[in-house]
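Researcher: Before we compare anything, I want clean individual predictions. No alignment, no superposition, just each chain on its own. First chain goes here; please echo the sequence and then give the structure tokens.
Model: Echoing the first chain and its structure:
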Amino acid sequence: LVTSKSTIETNNTLEQQSLILSGLIVDRDGALQVYNPIYAQVFDRDWIDRELARVCPYSKALTNWLDHGRPDSLLLNGDGLDRAIVWKESQSQKNQSIGIEGAAFLDRSQAKRTDVKLNQIKNRIKSLVRILLVSILIGIVIGLVLLFALKNKDESLKLASEINQFNLISNKITSQYEFAPIDSLKAAIVNARKFQSSQIDLSGQTTPTPQLALQKLVDSIQEIDEINTHQEGVNAVNFCPDNKIMTAGSDGTIDVWNRQLDQQDPLTIVDLGAEIKINSIYSNNISYPKSKCDDTFVTGSSDGKINLWSWNQDLITAKRITEPAIAHKNKDLDREGGVQNVRLTQDKRYIFSTGKTDGMLKKWLIDNNKLTLIWERLAHPGGAMSLRLNRKNNLIATAGKDQTAKIWDLDGNLNEELAGHNGSVNSIRFCSTTSTSCQLYEIATGSSDGTVKLWDANGMLLGTINADPGEVRAVLFSPDGKLLATASAKDPNTNNGSSVRIWNLDDLKLITNFKGHQGGIESMRFNPNFKAENSNSLQLATSGQDDSTIRVWKIPEVISAQNNRLEKVNSVRFDPDDSSHFITAGDDGSISWWSHQPNRPLERIDSFQKDNIKFTTIRIHPRAGKEMIAVGGSDGKVRLLKVENNQLTEITSFKTGQGETYSMDWNYDQGRYLLATTGTAGDYVRIWKIDIKNIKEGE
């Protein structure tokens, strides 16, 4: 930026020449200076920022980066970087320059994203190598039983006891893997090293492979992020559109975690004191996505108070907008009472609250920095457990310990009472609050009786899901209205933690089950920037009330097959270049190429059939795409296929010498296309170099 008090060295770029020709600046002794001080006042920094924002989608981020000394932490990433790259390409097509600083900003941003992806790939490779090593060693342990059966009986009994001990430890590790994957992998490695130190001689002997069992477990991991908050329990979580997560803790704090920056330590924006427990936090970004967290949010806490906050995300802490209101008195003055839930209307004029022990529902007016009570109703004797707003229909929903849920209008008149549960109703949700694609079900309730009940907009019971052997603590509709998430308390029949289950609302069947929390789950949020065209964007954040942990889960895509039957499908892969197409491999010897479009039946475009063969695994090359597809089968062969004009064609095949192909993966290294294969015969991995340019059909 050239000002009346600063200069920039002349370098004769196109931008500088254009400015000189315009007469705004002049070259004096090799430095650019403003020709007339009036120009500096007219075309000042504010004018430049406004004009840049009009033509350049990342101008504000660029200015912030330059002003703070060009740190990597302020570079673009995610969707913002993608939009900037598209804009840069459009400018290039118009033969228009984006400037030296703009180009440097985008280049650095792209380089950082590349480095992050490379590190992720490296870490993944390291993990797979460790897992492979552990799998092989566990196989060796199992094989020792056969080896020592041929040796001296006394010696065999002694060694068999040692082997049995290793096997017991291995089985225990495997059984705990579902609930603590990282710790289990570490334990498996330690167990393998102990076996190595026993110096058992296996020379000249062969042992059966464990079929890389641990690798198969790793492939099933659906947890993609874990945050240990150290907040003495997390009671509520907000998932912001810009990938930030806000957590309300039992230690009286509200922390903000920036997942884009791989943040290790949170930003604490509210601290009410360790003796106060924040039970609820709410902001409008949950149901009405914006580009970032909403600047205004409301909290309810165990001291019975409601606080309305404003948080400018350029600042470190939030500030109160109004004086705290004592909404629900805590008679016993303990940390388990007070305000249970708070909700803020979209126009930010009213707040609704419910009491954890008094069971009251109250409406508050936000006026002149004060909260004024408008009306109150006894909603649920014994305590209110859940509170929701349906902004579309101007309705309020509450649920409580009296085994009922109730629907109210905004004036406090009771419209419907939903009865039928045999335990406390812990959670209630409107579908239309979070989705514009709701079909049959408008309301879901979850209860301590372990069931979820589904209702229409008029309060008619339509269906029941036996969701959990214990109690259901929370329910949540997905942004596309197709799924329902349920969270449980700790399973009373086992020593395991609680579960998060995902249900298909088409047939009310279980899709998947997430485990990992070691205690009850009180809050869940889907990411609000979900895009229907990108199935990988659907994520769910859950908060552990007892283990103080936030976990983020990847939700699998659910495709309604309707009249098409996908029977005994062993592997499925999406086209990396077009997510509306995917390929499947099945037990019946078929490989099928499919198309799926929103609100349209699933279509099988083409299929490839081999009799008496079971296809076990399939991989599409990430670079070559559908031009190079590898399929493994029970006949020990790998077949290379391609899709051309939506038709499947076999290019060639080869024997791996590993028995039935168990797993495969592609890699691209310095122009070489590499394929790694494993099989049921042999405890090794083979790497194949594929020359895709010289492969001919039938070779």
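Researcher: Okay. Second chain, same rules.
Model: Second chain and its structure:
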Amino acid sequence: MKKPKIVIFALIAIVFATPLFSQTIINPGFEAGVGDSTFAVGWHTNQAETKASLELTADGQNQVTKISPSDNWTKSIRQEFDLNIEQFIKYRLSAKMKTEDMTGERSKAYLFASLYDDQDFQVNYANNRDQNLKNIPEWTDFAIEFVAPPETTRLRIGGALVGKDSGTVWFDDFELALLPFEPDDIQLSEAARNYLQEVREVMQEKALHKEKLNFEHIHQLMQIEASGAKTVEDTYSAISKGLRLLNDHHSSFLSADRIKEILGVDTVDIEKLKEDPLSHIEPEKLDSLKAAIDYSSGRIIHSKTGYIRVPSFTSLYYEGQFLFADSLQQLIKSLDQPDLRGWIVDLRGNPGGANAPMITGIGPLLDDKNTYSYVDSQGQPVSEYHYVEGGYKIAGSEEEDTLIHFVKTSYQTQKLNLPVAVLLNDQTASAAEAVTAAFLGQANVKTFGSSTAGATTGNEAIFLNDGALLNITTSYLADRNKTIYKQGIDPDIEVEFNRKVGEDLESDPVVLKAVEWMKEYN
């Protein structure tokens, strides 16, 4: 009897792998051995650093493909196919899987499929990550189903493994099959159907890439995903999927319950927020709001350097934004001293939130030319913002400029031109990238670390009829020099960092590089 060939993924840090198709899948069971330029005939790894190879194990064992530990965050195998279709087509991707030692809380193994059009936009995707496949000691069959819309020109399939702790997953016998499909056979309640239509209309009006997207097909895919929905809540996962198909990598959906969690209160007046997203909180809810805020922190390090960690901040209430911004300026004031060498603003690990309180809070370290803006897909200005003494200014005509005051009394540092090092990493995102943009081009500023997450886009918050929120990406971020950032911000000085942010600032290599620059600057 033929011994099956399998794919093995060894995960020591964080690893991904990818499930494969049959029918047109090349070498679906890995029988064909090693290819000329890949680890197995027909297969590719996700990154050059991924160490994949075929091995023949001892008697009684299977031939395997092994991905060894390496420094890259994600490891996967994949295969791609060109498609030429004229209608919606349904596929089923299946494979055998088993796992071992997947003990990490975030460790997951799964199959996946990604579909793209001729613009390289993702037009659909599927995976079985939600099955939380961890304890599978014996070979087990798994499958995912997905629909390819007519504009699909390329299909990528594979297997993935992700997680912090060590673990192993095996894949074998990939197969891709066509399934019968009737696009019109979708069962939705009237409420669910109307809700999805409302979402489509918002997407079509606001989306960053609206000129390039097929909203009829995105709408149809959301309906397919939500088929069987009886309530509005039953459509939420389908909406999240539809937002991903906008291909801006930033749009998101928040239910009314999730908004309450973010605001840090038990109840929320959605109608009031619809009228004014920056509204006032009722006095009796203020204590719970204060307790929910993650305030900025800092101290003097390396004798004469003021270190400030700016965390994410998401409250929509004026009082929350005031508390965050004012406390940050007070922190700067408490660290300022006559013999200070410079400032470090640590934005590593900050996933974003609200721009205004972060920029207002860090405002004393910005010069008077700190304007940043958002532009549409054609590069035309949409909005412009900057910090001025005491608050955050939304620019318009002279009569329309809006100043939002977020601090009791603005603080001005004792020395105005001390060097400022801004620390970045791949988890610096969204509003934290906007804070970075406000600093870019300032003569006494240099950025350190690694490239940011790439959520360098502006979002518009739109409330739906049930109080849920569509956070639709509408624009790109630009700095004072009108440089547009579409895929994140690269640091001036790249520094490798492979541990927890804030763990040991005295030996942190990014901090050390920043301090070294400050000494030279002075």
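Researcher: What stands out in the second chain?
Model: The first strand starts at residue 5 and ends at 11. Additionally, The two ends are 74 Å apart (CA to CA).
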